[in-house]
Amino acid sequence: MNILIKSAKIFDKSNKDLHLKTKDILVQNGVITKISDAVTPTEDAVIVSKKNLCISIGWLDTSVSFGEPGFEERETIKNGLKTAVKGGFTDIILNTNTNPIPYTSATLAFIKDKAKEEVTNLHPLGALTVNSEAIDLAELYDMKNAGAVGFSDYKKPTSNSNLLKIALQYAQNFDGLIYSFPLDCKIAGKGIVNEGDVSTSLGLKGIPALAEELQVARDLFILEYTGGKLHIPTISTAGSVKLIREAKKKGLDVSCSVALYNLLYSDEKLTEFDTTYKVLPPLRTKEDITALIEGVKNGTIDFVTTDHNPLDIEQKKVEFDNAAYGTIGLESSFGILNTIFDTETTIEILTKGRERYGLQTPKIKEGNTACFTLFDNDTLHYINKQTSKSRAKNCMFFEEKLKGQVFGVLNKYVAEIL
Which domains does the chain have, with CATH numbers? Predict the structure, then answer.
């Protein structure tokens, strides 16, 4: 397929010659063959021309859950990846909350096979421990060879400090990335929301910031002792930002992410007991939001993720105490980020960090394989239950005003223009 993208404003800070310039881009059989002010289309070329068309390299989300295998009623891999396309993502990192949990190379092979020939690339995580039970390390080396880009027990903290120490030491033999979810379960107790004025007024048991920060501090001490590569997913407090900033100054090889919802909403959203806003980590305070946004801007926080987690209506339409944690957000991510940050910063957030997972960063350059996201950075719009591609509808961002809209993606030999 030959595709001619007409008059697209390019967002690519790594290329000063193209950044914020408007160009025509010709893609032939998946390869960028011409970038110029004006390109004459070939007879068989599909022309993509839209008002306020912008383009960048394809976007990455580092924390995505679907369901398959085991929970296909929530979301299948095939439909989940189509939802990712609608959100503008050419690459996603898939979490380990499936059944069976992927702690062997065989399960990873099944997942990767299901994602073949889809527009969006799926990069699976492998479980850190057998059945994510935090007792015995899983087959990390075999899973690395089978395509695992990191090792995570999704939303389950590694309470055994020695196990984390051994994992960090062992994974250095093959440059493995070890995850540690930041939650001290003993401190968190039976808490389900942020501990503070809101939880007290609502009569809900709280999770103090200490439960996160104590675990982060422990993990960083262990990393300093062992060396290795550590990723701390979805931090949510100002204290965690400070701890990780100090660790990076020391030269520790640590990265971290923040969930999209922790940049937008505070725990004040909980006053109606709407289970859509029940997430883990919980919505925190406005002061935490300010610190997290600043952490993204100054590079302390490496990734902003949707933490996309489809759930059945039965898991959400229950009493708040009994509801499951999680929201979807792939389709809303760009529009939300583009309201919090300027477009250049938003695109930088969405495109950076592939190297952390051993993935190659695409380039907008003649002769390179095409990997683009096409978007409009200005139009205001909304997503609701009717327009969402996801099977699950547990989305806290429905009816939120989104600034900017995705037109589609082009990845290798496959394009999907919405």
Answer: 2-55+364-378+401-417 (2.30.40.10), 58-357 (3.20.20.140)
